[in-house]
Structure formats: structure tokens, C-alpha cells
Amino acid sequence: MQDTTAALRQRVRDVLRKHPGSQRAFAERIGLDPTKLSKSLSGARRFTPVELTRIAELTNVTVNWLINGDDEFETVAAAPQRTARPEREPADFREAGRYQQILDAAWKLIAERGYHSVRVADVAKACGTSAATIHYYFPGRNDLLTETLRYSVRLAFDRQVAELHTIDGAHERLLRLVELQLPTPGLLRSEWSIWLQVWNESALNPDLQVLHSDSYTRWHETIARTIRQGQRQGVFAETDAEELTVTLTALIDGLGIQVLTGRPGRSVERMRRVLREFVEREIVRH
């Protein structure tokens, strides 16, 4: 499997050498025991998908690059649009660390409180810095929402690559994609909160509509290519893959909104069951 190769371990070593601080401190930042990090670097254990995603996030690379050595490598998930870039690119690891700290704080606050309830001063307080520093990286408050969307897209792409790259069967991969899209408590529910707010704001903001469309296209294409692969493998029905993707993504969106808004009788467990039943009934070949 690719995540056990010497090439991946070497790429992790390379980004660790460039990252400020000790290997022990880095291990703590990704929530990993330093001994386990050493074992992963030596090949005695494999990096988990969560660890690979966190390493990529902290070192400003992609999981696709860590695993395959190339951001443009044709992998299991469609890549985000390359046109989506922050206005001020961090110049070095120190500046990138500050930028990521601000983005993390803004992302969490917006997910928890709502975009219109978060002020720049709140983000500055959470980071222990000044409002002027926040404005250096994010000139306007709207920029915070825009970048949190891009951040969510990047997180989803990295997570999908990390989780799916060892799964060859399209059926299992599609079910795993469904699982990764459930608004379970924690990170995924926060991502759903961001998406709900982006949907609301993009209905009124043409600029955000473009970014949202690009971002959603990435998710749509990931599902579509998985369905097409299953059809080539002979495990999925020869139904129009595009139409199946439109229906499945719409079903995920609608159920996710109902779960997040607390509609009675709607739960993550029921959402999982309905989506799995749809896959088995409409997509799997019988």
C-alpha cells in the first residue's frame, strides 16, 4: 500500500526538517505520541489517514503530494480548483503558521457561532494577537468566510485522499465517501455548519457563488468518478453516472440539512441508513 512506501516516509521527513521546532513538538501538534511518529518514519507502523491529513495541514502541503509526490496526480478524489488562492500567500513557515492559526480560529468560531456573530476582534482574541494582524491576512470580514470555505474544501479533499487511496473497490469506496459526508459530532459537523452558511451567503453574493460552484464541482466529480469506476468494475448498474451523482448529492445535502437543523426523526444514523439503501437499490448492479 502506498502509505507504507519509503517515498512517503521520506516526504514526511523532508517537510519535518523544514518545519520549525522539534520532532517531538510536531508530533504533539498532530496529536501523535512521539514514539509512534518515529515508528511511522522508520516503517514500523503506518500513518493513519487522520495523521496524514494533519501533517499536510501543518506543513502546507497536500495529502496527494505526501502519498503520490505530485499535487496534480490523478487520484481517488477530484482536486480543488487551483484558482482558489488566499490574497496574501504566507512567505515562510513562520508566517504560514500564523496564517493557519488565524484560519483555524476563524473556522471554528464561524462553525460554532455563525458568520454574522463573529467579529474580527473575536478571531484576534482567540489567536492572542491584534485585529491589525488579522486584517493583514484577511483585509475584510468577508475574506474570512471565503477562506474558511476554501479551507473546508482542502480538508475534505485531503481527508478523502487519505481515507480512500488504499480502497480499490468502487462499492466500498462509495460507501466510505458517504460515511465521510455524515454530519457526525466534531469536525464533520463543523464543516457542515460552514457549508450551510456559505449556501446562505452565496445566494446573495455573486462572487461567493463562483467559489461555491467551483468547490461543489469538486465533490460532484469525486462521486461521479467513483460511480464510473464501479461501472467499469461491473459492480454498479449501467445507469447514467451523471444523473446518479446529481440524485445522490442532492439526497446527501437534503438529509444533512435536516439533521443539522434538528428536524424531528432525522439523525445521523437514519441519514446513513437512507443513503446506504439508495446506493444498494439504485447504484449497485443486481
UniProtKB/TrEMBL annotation:
Residue ranges: DNA binding: 119-138
Residue span, HTH tetR-type domain: 96-156
Key words of the record: DNA-binding, Repressor, Transcription, Transcription regulation
InterPro entries hit by this protein: BetI_C, Cro/C1-type_HTH, Homeodomain-like_sf, HTH-type_TetR-like_transc_reg, HTH_TetR, Lambda_DNA-bd_dom_sf, Tet_transcr_reg_TetR-rel_C_sf
Sequence ranges assigned to domain HTH cro/C1-type in this UniProt record: 22-66
Keyword flag Kinase: no
Gene3D superfamilies assigned: lambda repressor-like DNA-binding domains, Tetracycline Repressor, domain 2
Superkingdom of the source species: Bacteria
Identification of the protein by name: AcrR family transcriptional regulator
Lineage: Bacteria, Bacillati, Actinomycetota, Actinomycetes, Pseudonocardiales
